[in-house]
Specification:
This protein is an alpha+beta fold. The chain is built from 7 helices and 20 strands. The longest helix is centred in the last third of the chain and has 21 residues.
């Protein structure tokens, strides 16, 4: 065994980049809510972005480590501890057998991602290890972590001088751009939907001038919001159509829902807009009670911002290549 779950936390699940190319069959994508943090955690331990990480929500789990390995935490800062000693976020951490992982106070954000060098041994379904709880597929037997669960890794650090490796990893310097670790934001940028003009002028104005709050009735499928009522100019019937991460649906009651990673594949509610993909990670780090507002941007600007984010991630991958080289050499030794 590699990790034993001592405390399961709040709906801790393994997630990768999602179950892509299967929505036409009604299969939700799932995957990490904060893709930036997921990718960063993987890069820090020398993994490709496609590998699964452990997504930990609000109240993280605790573990006992059974085999030496290298892990990293990215996303919300939940004051990670190893044997009650603080370890850094956004850096690789070498663990020894029988180390205890726990967490202190949550300092920001809502979701933390833990990656391990070489990846976790998980159940892949339709080319993805992402956990989708409603269908009980992927991850660790299709479920959130439970006390006493055991999960394994592919590449324990056996026969390696762990102290020397830890020092060599610490000596590697790099810089993180704010766009990669940005969590707490007051505004989410949105793009108009095809049904934008079907809403009343007052509703459209309120959407971009009034505050909204994430309610406790929110999960990986969608964030229900509390805010001004959004109304159609006149009732209309819609044929269900495809939906994406960040779709802002407006049910009959007039309170908006932002669809998230575990969203259904189609929806029949009117859509007033879409959260720009560059702001998906910031949206993913929101917790019940968080307040924010929306601002409009054009499609071309959303595309430019997303391209800049991808360039930043590509530059970061180059900076972190020494971690990959060092850890791969340690495992091969």
């Amino acid at each position: 065994m590699s990790f034993e779950v001592l405390k399961p936390g709040l709906l801790s699940t393994f997630q990768d980049l999602g179950r892509l190319q299967h929505q036409r069959w009604g299969i939700p994508v799932a995957g990490a809510l904060d893709v930036n943090a997921h990718r960063l955690a993987n890069l820090l331990v020398g993994n490709p972005a496609e590998m699964a990480t452990l997504e930990m929500n609000l109240y993280p789990p605790s573990f006992k480590v059974r085999q030496p390995c290298c892990i990293a935490f990215a996303g919300a800062n939940v004051s990670p501890l190893v044997n009650e000693l603080k370890v850094p976020m956004n850096r690789p951490v070498v663990l020894r057998a029988d180390d205890m992982i726990s967490f202190g106070p949550r300092l920001d954000g809502a979701r933390t991602y833990m990656a391990v060098h070489g990846g976790f041994q998980l159940n892949a379904v339709l080319d993805s290890a992402s956990t989708y709880l409603r269908s009980a597929i992927g991850g660790l037997n299709g479920k959130a972590l439970r006390k006493g669960d055991v999960f394994h890794i592919h590449k324990p650090l056996l026969g390696v001088d762990l102290d020397e490796l830890a020092q060599e990893l610490w000596d590697i310097k790099f810089s993180l751009k704010s766009s990669v670790i940005r969590k707490n934001v007051a505004k989410l940028r949105i793009i108009k939907s095809a049904q934008w003009d079907d809403f009343t002028p007052e509703s459209r104005a309120n959407l971009i001038t009034q505050p909204f709050k994430v309610t406790p009735i929110s999960d990986r499928m969608g964030f229900r919001l509390e805010g001004p009522m959004l109304k159609l100019s006149q009732p209309r019937q819609m044929i269900s159509e495809s939906v994406v991460f960040g779709t802002i649906q407006v049910p009959v009651g007039g309170q908006a829902i932002i669809l998230m990673a575990d969203r259904q594949t189609t929806g029949g509610y009117p859509k007033i807009g879409y959260v720009a993909s560059v702001d998906h990670p910031a949206l993913a780090q929101m917790a019940p009670g968080d307040m924010f507002s929306f601002s409009l941007i054009e499609m071309a600007e959303a595309q430019r911002l997303d391209a800049r984010r991808e360039w930043g991630m590509a530059d970061l991958a180059k900076q972190l290549q020494p971690f990959t080289d060092l850890l791969n050499a340690a495992v091969a030794a």
